[in-house]
Specification:
By secondary structure, the protein is of the alpha/beta class. It is built from 15 helices and 13 strands. The strands form four sheets. The chain has a five-stranded parallel sheet with strand order 10-11-12-8-13, sandwiched between helices. A four-stranded antiparallel sheet has the order 1-2-4-3. Strands 5-9 form a two-stranded parallel ribbon.
C-alpha cells in the first residue's frame, strides 16, 4: 500500500514540490529520477538514502558544483537502433559524448575516498569501452565518417582522390586552351561528375555531354566526352565508398546495440546520482536539512517549502509520545491549513529522502500511511456536496488509521450545522484516539476545543494573527 494516496498527494501538493526539485537537476535523467520519487515506509532505506544525499552535500561543499554535463539519454537511441539497421554518424557523437562524460564523472567521484557511497556508485559506471575507440576512429567532429575509418575506405578514397586530380588537371588544361568556350574558368561538379561551365554556343566546337544548365540558359555544365570513362570510374568508386560507409555504420550500430546492458546500467546510476545532487543543491539553496527519525514529530523553525522563504513564518510543533493528537485553533487566514500542510509535506519529503526546510535538530516519525482531508473536494459527477465529500473521505481515513499513520484533518466539523458538526467531530476524534494514529486537526468549533483541553492525550495549539 502506498504511503500517501492520490488525495493526500494532491492536498499536500507533492507534485509541485517535485517540480520545484527538478529545477535543480542537470539532466533529463535526473528529472526522470525525481519524478519517480515516492514516500517510503522502510526506515532503513530512508536512512541509506539520507546518507547518500549527505555525501552529495559534502561533495558540493568541497567542490562547489556537480553536473552530468554531456550525458545524453541513450535509451531512445537504443530503441531507434533496434528499429533500424544503422544510425547516422552524428548520433554516434551523442554516444561518444555520453561515454566521455560518464568516464569523467567516474573519475571525479572515485577520486574522493571520503565519500564511500558516491564512490561505490561511480565504480559501477562503465570504464573505457571498445565502442568509444571505434567511434573515435570512424567518426569525425562533424559526425562524418573519416576517410581512414577502415583500410578499405582509406584505399577507395585514395583511389578516388587520384582519379579526380587527374580529371581536374585535364579539365584545367582544356580551359586554358579554349578560353573562348568557357563561361567561367572553374571545375565544378554535377550529378557526381566533374564538369566545366561552357557558353551555350560552344557545344558545336567540341564534343560534350551536358549535365545541367544555368537559370538563364547561357551557361552549360558540360563533361568532355574524352573524360567520360574516367568520370564513370569515379562514380563507380563513389558507389563503393557509399557501401563501405554504410557497412561501417551498421557495424558501429551493432556494437552499440550489444552494449545496451552497460548503457542502461549507467543510465540508472547516472539518473540516481543526478537526483542525489539535485536534492543536495536544493538543500543548499533553501537551507534544508534532514530531521532525526524517531517515533515523534518535533518540528523546529519549519517552513512550508512552496511558500516564499522571505514571507513564510516558521512554525515549531511537537506531536507524539503520550500526546498522539494536536488540535489547532485560531482565526481564519491565521495559518492553520498551512501548518497542517507543512507537517504532511515535510513528512512526505523526509520519507522521499528530500531534505526539509527546518532546523536539523527537528524530529519526524516514519508513517506507513499519511492521510489527509484538506481543501474542497466537491464532486459534481457524483453529486456530492462539499460536506458529504469530506465525510466520505474521513470515513475512508478512519478505516485505515492505525498506530503507524499520520492523519491531517482541516476544519473538522465545518460545512454543516455547528452542533451536528461538533458531534460528528467529537466522534471522529475519539475514534482516531483509539487508533493511536498521530493526528493533527484544525477546527473553529468550541466543543472540539474543550475536548482537546480536557483530554490528556490531546495537545492544543493556537495560531496568532
Amino acid at each position: 500500500m502506498a504511503v500517501a494516496n492520490d488525495k493526500t498527494l494532491r492536498d499536500l501538493e507533492y507534485d509541485r514540490l517535485k517540480h520545484l526539485l527538478k529545477e535543480f537537476a542537470s539532466s533529463s535523467l535526473g528529472e526522470e529520477a525525481i519524478d519517480a520519487l515516492t514516500p517510503l515506509a522502510d526506515e532503513a532505506a530512508i536512512e541509506r538514502g539520507m546518507a547518500e544525499v549527505k555525501e552529495a552535500i559534502s561533495f558540493l561543499e568541497q567542490q562547489g558544483h556537480f553536473s552530468l554535463g554531456g550525458v545524453h539519454d541513450l535509451a531512445p537511441l537504443l530503441d531507434h537502433a533496434k528499429e533500424r539497421t544503422l544510425l547516422e554518424g552524428e548520433k554516434f557523437l551523442l554516444v561518444l559524448e555520453t561515454i566521455e562524460s560518464t568516464h569523467q564523472i567516474r573519475a571525479t567521484l572515485t577520486f574522493n575516498e571520503d565519500l564511500p557511497l558516491l564512490r561505490r556508485f561511480a565504480e559501477r559506471l562503465s570504464e573505457a569501452s571498445e565502442l568509444e575507440k571505434r567511434i573515435t576512429q570512424a567518426i569525425d567532429e562533424a559526425g562524418e565518417i573519416r576517410d581512414n575509418a577502415s583500410p578499405t575506405l582509406k584505399q577507395l578514397t585514395g583511389k578516388r582522390r587520384t582519379l579526380e586530380e587527374r580529371i581536374e588537371k585535364k579539365l584545367h588544361a582544356l580551359i586554358d586552351r579554349n578560353p573562348e568556350l568557357i563561361s567561367e574558368p572553374v571545375v565544378t561538379r554535377r550529378t557526381g561528375r566533374l564538369v566545366i561551365p561552357i557558353k551555350s554556343g560552344a557545344t558545336g566546337a567540341m564534343e560534350f555531354v551536358v549535365h545541367d544548365r544555368s537559370a538563364t540558359g547561357q551557361t552549360l555544365y558540360a563533361e568532355p566526352t574524352s573524360l567520360v570513362a574516367e568520370n564513370n570510374a569515379v562514380v563507380g568508386i563513389e558507389s563503393e565508398i557509399r557501401k563501405e560507409r554504410l557497412r561501417i555504420l551498421r557495424e558501429l550500430t551493432d556494437v552499440f546495440k550489444q552494449a545496451e546492458p552497460a548503457f542502461l546500467r549507467d543510465r540508472m546510476i547516472l539518473a540516481h546520482l543526478d537526483s542525489l545532487f539535485a536534492r543536495a543543491t536544493y538543500a543548499a539553496a533553501h537551507h534544508c536539512a534532514f530531521p532525526h527519525l524517531s517515533g515523534v514529530i518535533a518540528l523546529k523553525d519549519a517552513r512550508h517549502p512552496l511558500l516564499p522563504e522571505e514571507k513564510v513564518v516558521p512554525i515549531s510543533l511537537s506531536l507524539g509520545g503520550r500526546t498522539r493528537m494536536t488540535v489547532i485553533t485560531g482565526p481564519n487566514t491565521g495559518g492553520k491549513t498551512v501548518t497542517l500542510k507543512t507537517i504532511g509535506l515535510l513528512t512526505l519529503m523526509t520519507q522521499s529522502v528530500i531534505p526539509i526546510p527546518a532546523s536539523p535538530d527537528s524530529e519526524l516519525a516514519i508513517a506507513a500511511k499519511v492521510r489527509s482531508d484538506i481543501g474542497d473536494e466537491q464532486s459534481i459527477e457524483q453529486n456530492l456536496s462539499t460536506f458529504s465529500s469530506h465525510m466520505g473521505n474521513i470515513v475512508s481515513i478512519l478505516k485505515e488509521a492505525g498506530a503507524d499513520s499520520l492523519i491531517l484533518l482541516d476544519e473538522l466539523g465545518a460545512g454543516t450545522d455547528p452542533q451536528e458538526g461538533a458531534a460528528l467531530g467529537l466522534a471522529i476524534l475519539e475514534d482516531l484516539l483509539s487508533s493511536e494514529a498521530l493526528v493533527a486537526v484544525s477546527t473553529h468549533l468550541t466543543p472540539l476545543k474543550y475536548f482537546a483541553i480536557r483530554h490528556p492525550a490531546v495537545k492544543t495549539a493556537s495560531m496568532e494573527f
